[in-house]
Amino acid sequence: MRSVVFSLDAELAWGFHDADRLPRDRIDAGRDAWQWLLDRFEAYSVPCTWAVVGHLFLDACDGTHADHPAVDGWFDRDPGADERTAPTWYAPSLVSAVLDSDVDHEIASHSFSHVEFDAPGTDRRIARAELERSLAVAGERGIELDSLVFPRNRVGHREVVADAGFTTYRGVGPDRWYHGTPVRPVGKGLSYAVGRSPPPVVTPTVDEQGLVDVPASLNLFAFQGPARRFVSAVTGDPVVRKVRLGLRELAGRERGVLHLWLHPNSLTTGQDFERMERVLELVDRYREEHGLRVETMRSVGTRVRDHAVSAGSTSRRGPPESTVDQ
Questions:
Q1: Which of 3, 13, 81, 285 has the most CB atoms less than 10 A away?
Q2: Which residues make Cβ contacts (< 8 Å) with residue 209, sequence separation at least 6?
Q3: Tens digits of per-residue pLDDT, 122-140?
């Protein structure tokens, strides 16, 4: 099976509430970009995994969350309001829009309040509370959560994730040649500028907790700022070129996953929206011409686990990093 997966970190203001300063441009762009993406995914019949911060499910709250074992001050920026008065902190209508789409999207968890799971201050109690509250608020809307996208891709407390009933998560992508070297920034720039190395086509694995790890291939908005503008002026959008190379690599294989991901609030300029339109056009064309499949993390996870179970290679606590033929 050759598949393209889109996963979206849908967080609005919660992605920045622990920052020294709130980036108002990105926060304010979040809701419109969310709806625009939903419309375009529907236009191309592309199912996605929407990893939503649990607090966004709430119609309103008092802002204190006194029963949450978070570190002191964690909820200080929570306005204690509702969607009408604080639409970047509450978004039940956007969640409903995903549910109402004609495309079979997956709603996944992005924790309850964007806690980094591998941070020194995040103990098992906090991790468990983040997951339990996400499950509860989703359950109130009849949504069953299977997949988890760790905030800021900081993977941690996987045993708690498995105990909470999740089955699948987005893992960290394979290192590129420039990772862990003193020339990492230059190497990354060259990788995009020269445009000869495709993003990795990944193989989901079953980890020692029995969870399916669907590693990331490419963050569609990781190459930004002056470097992006310079490269784009010379060679065109380098990320679109990366996606094309990745799709070509995937089309030439017997199996694998090209896992593309982004934050809706990364779409703040006309160039950003144009990039996503071109990426969707490419995926749609390669799907049509090469028989690629577009599916959600839940779909990949189910298929991988079913195959592993039928092969007798996994259980609730499977062997370390069991690689399965997908």
A1: 13
A2: 158, 159, 161, 162, 317, 318
A3: 999 999 999 999 999 999 9
